[in-house]
Amino acid sequence: MDPGFLDLELIAMQLFSGVALGAVFVMLALGLSIIFGMLGIVNFAHGNVFMVGAYAGVFVMERTGSFWAALLFGPLMVGALGLLIERFLIRPLAGRSPDDPLLLTFGLGYVLVEGVRILFGSDGLPFATPEELSGVADLGIGFFPIYRLFVVGVVALVLVALWYGLERTRLGLIVRAGARDPEILRVLGVDIQRLWLWVFALGIALAALGGVLAAPMRSVNPEMGNVVLGEAFAVTVIGGMGSLMGSVVAGLLVGIVVSMTALFAPEMASIAMFAFMALVLLVRPQGLFGKPGLGV
Amino acid sequence: MQTLDQTVVAAPPKVPRRSPIALDGVSRWRAPLSILALLALPFLLPSQALAVNVLIYGLYAVGYNLLYGYTGLLSFGHAAFFGTGAYLTGIGIGAFGLHPLLAMALAVVAASGLALVIGTVSIRSRGIYFAMVTLALAQLVYYVALQASSWTGGENGLRGFTVSTIDLGIVSLNILNPLTKYLFVLAFVGAALALISRILASPFGAVIEAIRENETRARACGFDVERTKLLAFVLSGLFCGLSGALSAIHLSIVPLDSLAYHTSGTAVVMTLVGGAGTFFGPFVGALTVLVLEDVLSLWTPHWQLALGSVFILFVLFLPRGLWGTALGRLTALRGHR
Amino acid sequence: MNPVSNPILEVENLGRRFGAFTALEGVSAAFGEGRITAIIGPNGAGKSTFFNLLSGALKPTSGSLRFSGRDMGRVPQARFAHLGIARSYQITNLFPRLTAHENVRTAIQARTRRYDFWSRRDALTGLGTRADEILDAVGLSGRRDRTAASLAHGEQRALEIGIALASDPKLLLLDEPTAGMGPEETKEMVALLRRLGESRTILLVEHKMKMILGLSERILVLHHGRLIADGTPSEIQTDREVRRVYLGQSGGYGYA
């Protein structure tokens, strides 16, 4: 075998692996950014919502045997939970310090983790790759796992749907206007509270969807949310909080950085991600797509 | 000539007339009074180990409070300083055979240095990023420690550096004796409290509070806000590093958890539950949380659910914490001057 | 417009753009010491931007700003207070949980100590005395120990000015000092401003025409980011451009 050829294929596979990993990061960062852009809060329970999503997927899988049902109903169920959370825990904090929702969601994280432990136990649960999506596909330059292709596809679909919703619908116009200047919405008579309620639930559902998608690729256990939280933050900081484009670019970039680092020094992969974030912060504190300036 | 205060009708204030941050005359004595209260602690609590933990985590929370309660910067990565203080103390004693006090001193310097680095990176980011960046950077430190397992013991933590006596030249402290250990730790905590009280009462203390109250105005007044924040960050890292060093001496092991998200969260919880921005509040918070953990874990393995719920209730209904609310009521009772 | 000799403040062709939007353009004026000058204009005319430029919160994208002959283009905002320029804010911008006394004293401290961790600040009586003097000057001696958040609106506006006075500025920029005040409170504020104007240069942004006409010696009128008039109150009142702008907007000179 020609070693040069092997290298290229390996790199291509690793790159793609990075894109698949990045796709999950994108889902996480999107939800965080949307929630922040609209409500102005940093959701410290986001990682744990991701985890709850994975468990919701397991739950639906067990009941129905269908991965597609899990993919649809898992995020919906968790999104509904998000509605309750916004309505009863976050809304009462309106008008108070912006730190308060952050602190509350932080506490909520503990509740979610322990809740999952009570319902599903502390050990990890298996989540098998669905039959239809297992195996590899030969794409000429190499063999790529079909499931990962699927994940990238789903995320791409979600991105298109979001873009369409934001850019082409009236509701999207309201959301974009509100993210820039909530006062305008009040003047226009838009029911801000309902808007925030649903946007929050959307952000939560996106994280949960990420969890279901990621479940076959990593171990499903109650601690996975806390691990992922720091990663989600790193990606969002790199991309720029509140910027959807930033979430996408940063998510993919980080996925690739981690994946390529794993090729040469697997134990340094996580370190590479956070080191990358520190580097970006030193050069461009507002993130790649964030707006410069002081304060919130 | 008429003056404004004669013609203006005073609107009833919804905000407390005087913040509970300093009770005037009492505040001069807050350090000695706190130390006195802490002296009584081992006789009030069921176990000495718990009492020492209250001291250690109380100091950790006090150091954290300097940055959060007084300067207004919400960090979620303070485990990095606690853990660094702990690990370097253990490594200094175990791997280099240093005298425990020397190891502690070096560990504290290292924690302060780390705070300088982390602070520099995180303070220049916009306000909302701060919590996220500090969390992520602490994760970086965590993974580095996990990787450097030949030094840190990796997943299993650092062991093999048991300290049973501390040689002070003229006298040798047997810290296997619970009371001696308590007084040894209290000596450091007391000194730290005195220092912190002094710092808070200084002009520097006024600046950090101004930054907390209104950062833009502080800048417009002419304060170098970024540099002041960095100084507060380093001081905070210093005292949290000290608490970590004491923890290492106390436990004779340093678990990897010392650097984990949960430990960062612990600082936040204790400070908020006790009373952010009050002097003694963090100790009240540490005591409350540690006792709650002990009691709840007897009752159910899922005590974190209860703790998380309690914390949520505090954020919603008692944001000034136990001590903070009590002080607030007290000053309201004292009436107008 | 009369030429000003030894101006304390000079702006030449001053402008500020935000991307494609030009908030201020081509403003040139020279301000003499010890005068009270008002800046007026309809909403969106660029008054806030002008003030932000003068106080260093924003840097100009065109033109220059000179204070006592010194080019301020590269000077960071925090240095402005040290050089003698202070401003108050249209939306009350105080330290809410500090007392009125502490609010002013902290502002004074900004000019004096550097990174002092050790002294007891209560023992630094010089600062405290000066703070009390300022509180007296703005009429808040009776409210010395109340938290800023608990003060009545008019008192908060006075405290705003008190904080600005703390740096002993030569130039005071006051952004709508009577915002939200009724007629009685406004009269008090005017009296205060007249007192202060005896020893300082004051630039103020205001909407209350009757008040401005009575108080200021000179008025600048901004519209769509440009300076359309600059003169004495009587000159401004008869200026055709100004009348067109104001009458066209609201049918009058606004409320007094």
TrEMBL record, chain A:
Membrane topology: Multi-pass membrane protein
GO terms for MF: transmembrane transporter activity
GO biological process, one term: amino acid transport
One Gene Ontology cellular component: plasma membrane
Broad class of the protein's primary localization: membrane
Recorded coiled-coil stretches: none
Keyword Metal-binding included in the entry's annotation: no
Listed transmembrane segments: 12-34, 41-61, 67-90, 102-120, 140-166, 195-213, 233-256, 263-283
Record carries keyword Ribonucleoprotein: no
Keywords: Amino-acid transport, Cell membrane, Membrane, Transmembrane, Transmembrane helix, Transport
Places the protein is found: Cell membrane
Recorded family membership: Belongs to the binding-protein-dependent transport system permease family. LivHM subfamily.
Protein name: ABC transporter, permease
Natural source organism: Methylorubrum extorquens
